[in-house]
Structure formats: C-alpha cells, structure tokens
C-alpha cells in the first residue's frame, strides 16, 4: 500500500512539475503581457534618466506594453544594482545602467554587494554619453597641453570636480599621465559641480554632455577636449585628450540588463525590439539633443563580451592612477 502511495505521489509531483514548466513556457511565449519596469540608478533629470525615458517609451511601443522608468538613485548606483540583482528573472524588471555599476564600482567599492557579471543578464549596449574636459574661462589654457603647462607652473592651484566615477577616473588618469598637481574635490551631483565650475569654485571638470551640454555651448566654460579616443560626433571639432596624452581613452557607456537567469527567448525578444528602436533616426536625433550617442551592440553575447572587457579595462585605469577603494 505504501509503495502504491509513493508512486502516486511521484506521479502527481511529475505532473505538477510539467504543468509549471508548461505554464512558464507559455508565459515566456506570450511575453510581455504586463507592464515592464526599467530601473535607473540615477535621479530624474540625469543623462541616464533622459536616455531611459526616451528609449523606454519607444521600447514599450514595440513590445506593446508600457515601460515604466523607476529611479533608484543612491550609493553610486549600488542601490539600484542590488535591487535588480535580486529581482525575478522574468523579463519584467530591466536595468538601464552605465559603466558606474558594471565597470567602476567593482574597483572603487571595497565591499560591493553584487557581482557585475554573475548577477545580470546582458541585453544590449545602447550607446555612450560623451565626457568633455572643461575649464573655467579664467584658466589661461585653450588646449590640453596648455592646461598641463599651466598646472605644472602652478602646482596645487587648480582643482577639479568629481561627482561621478567617470569624472573621478578620467580626472585622476589625466593627473597621473600629465604628472600634474591638481586637487580633486568630490561632489554629490553633476549639476552642483557644473555650477561651481561656472562660479570658479573649481577650475577643471570632466563633465558629461547629458548635464553639461547647454553650458558647453556658451562662453561660461571653455571646452578643451573629449575623453574618448575616437572623438565625439556631437563635438566633431573638439580633439580627444588622447591626442595630447597617448593611451587616454575613457568612455561612459549605457546599456540594458536583466537579472541573471532571464530566459534567452525573453532576452532575445527585448534585444530585437531594442535594435529596432535604436535604428530609428528620430530616436537617434532625440538622444543627440541631450548629448547622447547611439552605439548599440547587435547581440546579447556581444554586449556580454564588451562588459567583461570594460570591467578589466577600468580595473587597469583605477590601478594605474592609484585610486583607493572606499
């Protein structure tokens, strides 16, 4: 009797398992059939937030479900990253993030509570937010070399703002490669750093075009160079820092992830819709207005490789500039 009960229980378990698997498969086949949340690790009004809202709206139209942007700012993207890492891997939680969470934090944060590789499923790189080296007009420099010469002639006189990981690593790399004595000043936000640059509280700032685009087009600051070695199509006449300091190449990228374990068919569906969105010239022009350059990867595998390469590259940058983990 006990043996028959054991077989009956086993059969019921097998049926339940098969039913659950079939339901999950059917749900994935119908994906998406509910709103999607896109978590952003920075505050509303930031460059990443603006990109997420523009891309999210069009992505929702393609997937025929609303994409809701959820800003979870704080701790230099750690709060949002931890939240996504623990989310259900069903395609209904996405993460629009940057090199801050996946390239810089692993080297700048001593006790990081998430793994940038193991805890996420890469979907696609969206593009990059160019950074530019800007100075206050009182600084007698109209080129990177002139800035270096002035800084060497006036050690400790200049200061630079560091409100985010890209600004920090780029500024420290500039200081290291040029062998200059420029004082770093930490900030909590890009807008405040830009305000202090215009007010001459700091004289140098590696600023993202998302927050600084409008000011960079005025005479309130002077733009000397961009941080990416390939230059910027948005600032085509501004030279790369790498022309003066060979090897200098720092890019702030944006990309979309899902929690680890998200089904491949769901990932591929999101990636396919995203490719169509990013190929739209209207979307590209809209993002260009906020200083963002569309530069997508084609497949999730290509993005995964890029993320791994950037993690190693930023590790070398941080170690080279001797930036201590906090």
TrEMBL record:
Signal peptide (from-to): 1-26
Keyword set, alphabetical order: Signal
Gene3D superfamilies: Bordetella uptake gene, domain 1 (3.40.190.150), Periplasmic binding protein-like II (3.40.190.10)
Pfam family for this entry, one: TctC
Keyword Transport annotated: no
Protein family membership: Belongs to the UPF0065 (bug) family.
Name this polypeptide is given: Bug family tripartite tricarboxylate transporter substrate binding protein
């Amino acid at each position: 009797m006990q043996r028959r009960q054991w077989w009956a229980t086993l059969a019921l378990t097998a049926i339940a398992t098969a039913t659950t698997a079939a339901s999950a498969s059917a749900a994935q086949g119908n994906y998406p059939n509910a709103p999607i949340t896109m978590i952003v690790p920075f505050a509303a009004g930031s460059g990443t937030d603006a990109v997420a809202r523009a891309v999210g709206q069009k992505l929702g139209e393609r997937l025929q479900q609303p994409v809701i942007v959820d800003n979870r700012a704080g701790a230099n993207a750690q709060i949002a990253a931890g939240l996504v890492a623990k989310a259900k891997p069903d395609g209904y939680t996405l993460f629009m993030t940057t090199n801050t969470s996946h390239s810089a934090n692993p080297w700048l944060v001593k006790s990081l509570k998430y793994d940038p590789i193991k805890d996420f499923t890469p979907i696609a790189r969206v593009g990059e937010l160019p950074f530019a080296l800007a100075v206050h007009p009182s600084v007698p420099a109209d080129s990177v070399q002139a800035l270096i010469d002035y800084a060497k002639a006036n050690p400790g006189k200049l200061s630079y703002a560091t409100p985010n990981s890209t600004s920090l690593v780029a500024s420290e790399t500039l200081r290291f490669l040029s062998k200059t004595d420029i004082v770093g000043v930490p900030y909590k936000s890009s807008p405040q750093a830009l305000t202090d640059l215009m007010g001459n509280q700091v004289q140098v700032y590696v600023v993202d075009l998302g927050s600084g685009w409008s000011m960079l087009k005025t005479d309130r600051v002077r733009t000397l160079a961009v941080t990416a070695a390939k230059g910027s199509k948005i600032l085509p006449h501004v030279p790369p820092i790498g022309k003066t300091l060979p090897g200098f190449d720092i890019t702030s990228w944006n990309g979309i992830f899902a929690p680890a374990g998200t089904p491949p068919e769901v990932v591929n569906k999101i990636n396919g819709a995203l490719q169509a969105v990013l190929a739209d010239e209207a979307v590209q022009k809209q993002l260009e207005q906020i200083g963002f350059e569309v530069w997508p990867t084609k497949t999730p595998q290509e993005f995964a490789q890029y993320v791994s390469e950037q993690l190693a590259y930023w590790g070398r940058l941080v170690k080279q500039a001797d930036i201590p983990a906090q």
